[in-house]
Design a protein that fits this description.
Elements: H1 2-21, H2 34-39, H3 50-58, H4 67-80, H5 84-110, H6 113-125, H7 130-134, H8 139-160, H9 164-178, H10 187-199, H11 208-227, H12 239-258, E1 267-268, H13 275-294, H14 300-313, E2 325-327, H15 335-351, H16 355-376, H17 383-393, H18 398-410, H19 414-427, H20 432-444, H21 448-461, H22 466-485
Antiparallel strand pairs: 1-2
Helix pairs in contact: 1-5, 1-6, 1-16, 3-4, 4-5, 5-6, 5-8, 6-15, 6-16, 8-9, 9-11, 10-14, 12-13, 13-14, 14-15, 17-18, 18-19, 18-20, 19-20, 20-21, 21-22
Length: about 500
């Protein structure tokens, strides 16, 4: 009977994911990372080639070392070309597989059928998953999560009946995860948590090879980051700014987990968090941790689930800032499992004998989240839509203004784009790429004097930017020529 229930639950989980995320297969590429990862990448566009594979395994420079993610994009281009539908289909199928793996892992870990199903449904259908699934560039999220979950499942098999072969399979899965996205860096720590509960085993020594692999991956990641240091926006942030942002972001993640509202492709890093807000966030986090510790004997799933969430978010918390975001929905893809497990197990215990209430919640909560995800999904249909939403739901978002302007330019809506370019550089004058793009937009409109000013500003903050140098030189020549000939430019008429 239970075997049939497992199969039925798996089918329902898969069907729910496919239905909720199916509309993303009609969406376009996004003008943020999708160009660098797929549409304008000279190694990826041709499909699966030996030269491309060699490049994928030897370059750590694009954020971090991720050869499997690069190869997966190459395979997509081999199969589907640059038609976005096929790329999106693969993302949906990978996410569906991951949700089934969450169910399988929790079931193998605890034996709790319905609790495991509830966690998998909540995690899989939550609106916070949209960014990872609907954004082609976040293939690395999905691949990294797949190998992470596969490693946990294989570890459970190893713990039940240790053997060299089973242990090697865990290491191979970890390696494949690290080659997809460094999110697998936290795997040894999560396995130590699971050793404490519910496995009740002590096995630190067997994690040492895993820690060694993680250390190597971390060093490779740092090499790629250091090579980009000259243009890394987060390099100049102070320790206080990083700690304050991390504290408020953790609390914001908790808020969005309960009430997923105002979601955006990019939340700007808050460089000026009031100390009272940061202190309140720190107290909230400390309070939750204290409660989990005090309940560790009676309700061990609280401390395990909470630490799973905290530890897995730590590399992307902003303490070691990379990128312009203060936080991101995609960072919750795996951490959400631990948080949801703690909540579901706690709710099941607190409800006790009220099985009808528990069953109603187990059905209505995932359905409600799935409906919200379905409703929010069209935000990701194209670049204009996703950035217009970011501008609408966030404040002082210079990147959103810049990319919305660029998307409008790509659509030929040049007049609509100009105010967004202007707003981007007003909010952040040191945003050299926005200055350059604004200059190019003014140049296109015939305002060469305005364009020259923007290219000069771009070079002020990034002196070695070759495109800005070239445009500045060309525009100055045109201005000199027009003055010499007595012609009037559009900006002078």
């Amino acid at each position: 009977m239970e075997a049939r229930q497992r199969v039925l639950i798996a089918v329902l989980l898969a069907a729910a994911c496919l239905v909720v995320f199916a509309q993303t297969t009609r969406f376009d590429f996004i003008n943020y990372d999708d160009d660098g990862y797929v549409t304008e990448n000279q190694w990826v566009r041709p499909g699966l080639t030996w030269e491309g594979v060699r490049w994928a395994f030897t370059t750590p420079d694009y954020d971090y070392w991720q050869p499997l993610s690069w190869v997966s994009h190459m395979l997509d281009c081999e199969l589907f070309g640059l038609r976005p539908a096929g790329h999106h289909v693969v993302n949906v199928l990978l996410h569906t597989t991951n949700v089934l793996l969450v169910f399988a892992v929790l079931l193998a870990l605890t034996g709790a059928l319905w609790r495991s199903a509830a966690v998998a449904a909540i995690v899989g259908l939550h609106p916070l998953r949209l960014e990872s699934v609907a954004w082609v560039s976040e293939r690395k999220d999905l691949l990294g999560a797949f190998w992470f979950l596969a490693a946990v499942w294989l570890y459970l098999r190893y713990a039940a009946r240790p053997s060299r072969t089973r242990y090697l399979l865990v290491l191979v899965s970890l390696a494949l995860g690290l080659m997809s996205k460094p999110v697998a860096l936290t795997l040894p720590f999560v396995l130590l948590l699971l050793d404490w509960w519910p496995l009740r085993r002590r096995a630190f020594a067997e994690k040492l090879p895993m820690f060694a692999m993680v250390a190597i991956s971390f060093l490779i990641t740092m090499i790629g980051t250091l090579r980009l240091r000259g243009i890394n926006w987060g390099a100049s942030l102070t320790l206080w700014q990083r700690v304050a942002n991390a504290s408020v972001s953790y609390v914001r993640y908790l808020e969005l987990s309960v009430w997923p509202h105002g979601l955006a492709i990019l939340y700007p890093f808050r460089t000026a968090v009031p100390w009272r807000e940061a202190l309140l966030a720190a107290l909230i986090l400390a309070g939750i941790t204290a409660v989990a510790v005090m309940q560790a004997r009676r309700r061990p799933y609280w401390i395990v689930g909470w630490l799973w969430f905290v530890i897995m978010l730590l590399p992307a918390s902003g303490l070691a800032q990379k990128g312009r975001q203060g936080m991101a929905d995609r960072f919750t893809y795996l951490p959400h499992i631990g948080l949801t497990m703690a909540v579901v197990w706690g709710a099941a215990d607190l409800l006790g004998k009220h099985r009808k209430t528990a069953a109603a919640l187990a059905v209505t909560v995932p359905l409600g989240l799935g409906a919200a995800t379905w409703q929010d999904a069209p935000v990701w249909r194209d670049s204009i839509s996703v950035w217009a939403n970011a501008v609408a739901v966030t404040t002082k978002n210079s990147a959103a203004q810049h990319y919305l302007g660029a998307a409008l330019d790509d659509a030929g809506r040049y007049t609509e784009a100009l105010p967004h370019h202007a707003e981007a550089v007003r909010l952040e004058p040191s945003y050299w790429f926005a200055q350059y793009t604004y200059g190019a937009a003014l140049e296109r409109q015939g305002d060469l004097e305005g364009a020259v000013g923007r290219f000069q500003e771009a070079l002020r903050y990034f002196p070695n930017y070759p495109d800005a140098k070239k445009h500045l030189e060309d525009d100055r020549k045109l201005l000199d020529l027009s003055k010499a000939s007595g012609l009037k430019l559009k900006s002078e008429q």
